[in-house]
Design a protein that fits this description.
The complex is a heterodimer of chains A (about 375) and B (about 250).
Chain A lengths: L1 E10 L2 E11 L4 E5 L6 H8 L7 E6 L2 E2 L4 H6 L1 E4 L11 H11 L6 H12 L14 H13 L5 E5 L7 H14 L4 E6 L2 H7 L2 E6 L2 E7 H9 L2 E8 L2 H10 L3 E11 L2 E8 L6 H11 L3 E7 L3 H16 L2 H38 L1 H12 L5
Helix pairs in contact in A: 3-5, 4-5, 11-12, 12-13
Chain B lengths: L1 H13 L1 H24 L6 H19 L1 H8 L3 H5 L5 H22 L4 H14 L11 H28 L3 H22 L5 H10 L1 H9 L5 H27 L1
Helix pairs in contact in B: 1-2, 1-6, 2-3, 2-6, 3-8, 3-9, 3-11, 4-8, 6-8, 6-12, 8-9, 8-11, 8-12, 9-10
The chains are: A alpha/beta (about 375), B mainly alpha (about 250).
Chain lengths: ~375, ~250
């Protein structure tokens, strides 16, 4: 459906995309994963004809984007990172404009009604976009991309800035779209691609460093587990116990407090499920385990694991260590900010799970009656 | 292209800017018409058209400043540039939307001539001889209107081009005012220049000098062609700006 061959894009002397080749089949949901500035958006912008490439060929549904841009663009629905909304239009006016702009021939009322139903914005169709909440705006943007029923839908960071409930909704929505369309989305959140995509393409510094089915990546993650555990008990003793517990490779007390409980970050050895053992050990000593939360691997870890893994397969072993350290060095600075964002997000999600009633009223407020 | 045209035209009236433009235009036109003809007791409308041309210095930027600058700022241009529309279609859609609003306002402002014709008719009725023509010359009036329309179109094209260069509407407006004021001002300045060749060159470039023939009742095809090609060149440049940005 999408075919990218040796794509290169230079901004002056700065190389944003460096020889990317990729093929996406029909009905696939592919996630571009990478830190900010990795070249995800640039690739997508070239795919949609917003930018031109320095060299290389891109075709969508067999149509070359450079040679026949109009027909290629007809096959694509695109939601850029910042949804291109005309804030002083109503939702209906906006969708109408999209409909006319794309020169659709489908039955207008039925088609727009259907699109609104898919993204669930039927109740705000008469409202001015300016007055809608961020989540609704995002959905209106998605609706705009869906107008004309394009074969390929491209989302650039579709869940940035949404609250956790909205994130889950949008993810479900995208999953649903994958049944009828080919979907490409970009994100810097690992959980997002895991939740939504069939296939993960990891991009760093303009190059594809990994291109795997989601299950494979997940397996890599399962091998190495990290937990945040909230334990009531004297901190130094608990920590000492944790560190000596077989199967735990690393333990550390975090600054987070919950009443008399301290949060500890625990890393277990690959392939060992430490949770039951942890529970019984603590119970024996009379320390209450009041929370246990599995942490996914950070983006940094994934990069290193994946880069490492792909090198092991293709290159001799002695090369691996060097690649590994290089990957760690180059990523350290970039990824720091992602880690913070990731941690924030995770905390938010946790609060949704714990306090779902509060979160409901929150998002209702922002979704339904905001801006009246 | 038609979708963009429609959207653009409608957005003038979703925003207050369209109303501001129409209001200021009609108020200025009425005021200028009143002063140059009725109050000064003359049927000659050429001064009115001259002053209207000066008024365009402020009026046209109101119309053009947001065309591309706003889209760029709000990132909505991404929607247009990834839609199945050619760059030319996009630029023309916006240009014609601005031109339509301009032309209709110009047309509406023609009601200012009704009192002049009414006065002329009354004066004719009072006299029973018909030695000379009393009242404004309709042909001259139409000629001036047509040339004013084309001058407006050229200015709109210039404003469109400048709007495509920046994402700041205010900057677009100020630069457009400066450029249009320059183009109109050269002609006025020309009367004070003694160097012959410079005068020739400047009067060739000047929008104002070329308008002189219309004001004197001549229908100047060279001027018409000049105004039209001015629009064409700047619209072409606007398309090139977007083309270049895509390849940048």
């Amino acid at each position: 459906m999408i075919k990218i061959e040796h794509l290169v894009k230079n901004y002056g002397s700065n190389c944003a995309v460096d020889d990317i080749s990729l093929e996406v089949g029909e009905g696939e949901i592919v996630g571009f994963l990478g830190p900010n500035g990795a070249g995800k958006s640039t690739t997508m912008n070239i795919l949609t004809g917003y930018l031109s490439s320095t060299s290389g060929r891109v075709s969508v549904a067999g149509i070359d984007v450079l040679n026949d841009p109009l027909n290629a663009k007809r096959q694509i629905g695109y939601l850029p990172e910042q949804p291109p909304l005309y804030l002083d239009m109503t939702v209906d006016e906006y969708l109408n404009f999209n409909y006319e702009l794309k020169g659709c021939r489908l039955d207008k009322i039925a088609h727009l009604g259907e699109v609104c139903e898919v993204v669930r914005i039927g109740d705000v169709r008469k409202r001015v976009i300016k007055n809608l909440s961020k989540g609704y705006r995002q959905r209106v943007g998605i609706a705009g991309a869906l107008v004309g029923n394009p074969q390929v839908i491209i989302f650039d960071e579709p869940t940035v800035g949404l609250d956790p409930k909205q994130i889950i909704e949008i993810r479900n929505l995208i999953r649903g779209l994958g049944k009828q369309h080919t979907v490409v989305l970009s994100t810097h959140i690992l959980q997002e691609v895991q939740a939504v995509c069939d296939r993960i393409v990891i991009i760093n510094k303009g190059r594809i460093v990994a291109d795997e089915k989601t299950e494979n990546i997940t397996r890599v993650i399962e091998n190495n587990r990290r937990f945040n555990a909230k334990i009531c008990g004297p901190q130094s003793q608990v920590l000492a116990t944790l560190k000596t517990l077989p199967g735990i490779t690393y333990a550390e007390a975090l600054a987070e407090r919950d009443g008399d409980a301290v949060t500890y970050m625990i890393e277990s050895a690959p392939g060992v499920d430490i949770r039951k053992k942890l529970f019984f050990t603590l119970a024996e000593r009379g320390w209450a385990l009041i929370g246990l939360e599995a942490l996914g691997l950070s983006l940094e870890d994934i990069f290193i694991t994946v880069v490492n893994k792909s090198d092991e397969e293709s290159a001799p072993t002695r090369y691996t260590r060097r690649t590994r350290s290089r990957a760690r060095n180059s990523l350290e600075g970039q990824v720091a900010s992602e880690l913070v964002a990731e941690a924030d997000r995770r905390r938010e999600e946790a609060s949704v799970l714990g306090l779902s009633d509060d979160a409901d009223t929150d998002s209702d407020r922002s979704g339904g009656s905001d801006g009246n | 292209m038609f979708a963009i045209y429609k959207k653009e035209l409608r957005s003038y009236f979703i925003n207050p800017i369209g109303y501001v433009y129409v209001g200021v235009f009609l108020a200025l036109a009425a005021l200028l018409c009143c002063y140059t003809t009725i109050i000064s007791g003359s049927y000659d409308t050429s001064a009115y058209f001259m002053y209207m041309m000066f008024a365009f210095v402020i009026l046209i930027p109101i119309l053009t400043m947001r065309l591309f600058a706003e889209e760029r700022k709000l990132r909505t241009e991404q929607l247009l540039l990834t839609a199945p529309v050619t760059l030319t279609g996009m630029v023309l859609g916006k240009f014609f939307a601005a031109l339509t609003l301009f032309a209709s306002t110009l047309l509406v402002s023609c009601i200012n001539f009704i009192p002049i014709y009414a006065v002329a008719a009354a004066e004719r009725g009072n006299q029973d001889y018909d030695f000379y023509h009393i009242g404004p010359v309709t042909g001259e009036l139409v000629g001036c209107l047509v040339s004013l329309l084309l001058i407006g179109a050229a200015f709109i094209a210039i404003g469109t081009f400048i709007s495509a260069l920046t994402e700041n509407q205010l900057a677009a407006a100020v630069i457009t005012i400066a450029v249009i004021a320059g183009m109109v001002g050269i002609g006025v300045l020309n009367n004070y220049i003694d160097v012959y060749w410079l005068r020739v060159v400047l009067s060739w470039v000047s929008v104002y000098s070329r308008f002189g023939n219309f004001a004197n009742g001549l229908f100047d095809f060279a001027a018409i062609l000049y105004y039209a090609s001015l629009s064409f060149v700047f619209l072409f440049l606007t398309v090139r700006v977007y083309e270049k940005r895509r390849w940048g």
